[in-house]
Amino acid sequence: MRLRRTAAVAAAVTVTAVTLPGPLTAPAHAAPLGSITVTPATGSVDTDPMFATATASAACPANYGTNAGLRIARAGTSQFANLTRVGDDGNYDAVPPTLRPNRSMRAAFGTTPITDGDYTLVIVCTGESAGDHPDVFSTTIRVAGTTWTAGGGGPGPTTGPTAGPTGGPGGSGNKQTLNMQVDPAATSASPSPTGTPGGGLPRTGSAVARTAAIGLGLVAAGVLIVRLVRRRRLA
Q: Degrees (nearest 5) of the Cα angle 106, 112, 116?
């Protein structure tokens, strides 16, 4: 019975895995440190510098305030291009870092074409001994034609930021979803069978009564035979 119930539950469980194209990797920046305020909030991809300032919404985490980097990449990719030299003023874990680009967006990407779509702007916090913090400050830069517009804080890149030009437009981040459905009816005990496999006593009430009647009949027949034998001996 336990085996049948277990099999029924297992059969009622459906697992559906959906994997989007691309290698399956866990996002390295699932929880951004915060957003970035870009001033001005819009401009041209050819303007040098791209904008005046980029300010993080909070200070870097403790022990990650030695340096700060300002980088940009096509959304969903990990090949980041530097928009300025690494900030080395220090104390970025005491006050929100403010960085100033020293090149245009087009110059940052070099020979890689800038196409319409979303890009991710990040500020990376670095400690002298701790290295880069695993999370970043981020915001979305949306490009249409030669105009870019800064959006709200968005998710970080799918893998750790890597300085250098991007290899072209990237796709969305990888995702894996598991959906599990369990039929509650399958967890209830299944009806008892009328008999056990391979012989043995039946389990239903009517079958037990029938077996008992047959047994009583055999006992009565045995008693009658014994009495007849005794009478013949006495005679």
A: 70
> Residue 218: pLDDT band by 50, 70, 90 thresholds?
confident
Which residue's entry shows tokens 């800038």? Answer: 114
> What percent of the chain has a predicted confidence (pLDDT) above 90?
50
Peptide bond into 49 cis (omega under 30): yes
Is residue 138 within 8 Å of 156, Cβ to Cβ? yes
Residue 142 has pLDDT above 80, yes or no: yes
The residue count for the chain: 235
Q: In whole numbers, what is the pLDDT of the chain averaged over residues?
A: 72
Distance spanning both ends of the chain, measured CA to CA: 58
Q: CA-to-CA distance for 64 and 42, rounded, in angstroms?
A: 30
In 137-233, at which residue ranges do the beta strands (DSSP E only) sit? 137-144, 147-150, 162-163, 176-181
Q: What are phi and psi of 218, to 5 degrees?
A: -65, -40
